[in-house]
Amino acid sequence: MSHRLTAFAHRHPRWFFVLFCVALTAILWGGLESIFYGLLRIRIVHESPGVTAWEGGDLIEPDPYLGFRPRPGATAHMRLETSNAAIQECVYTIDAHGRRVTPVDHPERRDKFALFFGCSFTFGEGVNDDETLPAHFARAAPAFMPYNYAFKAYGPQAMYLQVVEDTFGDDIAQRNGIAVYVFIDHQMHRAIGTASVSTTWGRDLPYLTLEGGRLVHHGNFQTGRPFTQWCYRALLRLPSVQYLRIDYPPVDRARNYRLVATMIEESAAALRRRFPGLRFFVVIYPKQELGKRLWGYLADVDVTFLDYSGLLADAPGSEAMYYYLDGHPTGKTQRIVAEQLATDVVRTP
User: Which of 34, 35, 146, 264 is surrounded by the most beta carbons within 10 Å?
Assistant: First the structure.
């Protein structure tokens, strides 16, 4: 120890102890992060090749409120592959209003509408236009004309911002029907903008908070909370966080469920102002777990809660029959869910 450092330790023993602890902590933390960095490199090398999606066609365009949306009139070809071996190929067709096309038989006989909201599960990632959840529902419920407002990566805030637009529904010919919001667990991450979402592909998603019981729109995550975003980016650079796949903040909190429940409640209210008598359904997609907790915050709201989380529990066959390797449902799963939904819609007053 140098003379000056020894003198400082004698004159300021408490400060010396504090600085010593800080230095020791920094050294230990740096060593721990180095270990995690090595483990991370090893895992990357030994992990099996991931699933990649190739998309041909200009499908997405920026949107000032939603962050991004389907480009009206677009046609896109999607190919899902692993190690250059195709798993699934399909075509996405978008109508002039920015909705996924849902082919139906005898549209002139359909005197009710069915509005579908949600993310890629409802949009139909990995399946053709006639294999989506709304398409299968239309075949099972021939009185309903389906409209698919869902899109990949959307959260519940997208539905809310869609339906509060003054022009929403102007092109819908039917005056009576239902609205269906399809919930999956990861939509909680998108609603609150966790670090893994808001610093990557979800930076432009709408940022809404609940203040005094009212929803407040702050733009997107990137512009609405720049300091938080900076902290999240710094957090995700740590090898330990990457290796342990830590995300922040935790989604399983009461305030997060209240936020999402309010988005659903306000969406249902906005739709009923435009379509009096509309019935609103919340569908918990198979194999999702957080929806049951969400229902506790919607129990007193005029929505019908359909829990399909266990719908495939006894389904025969392999997992590959129901979900692609990237986690999205196959057309078979979409049909099972749609037929159950059609049955429940008919029996629900």
Answer: 146
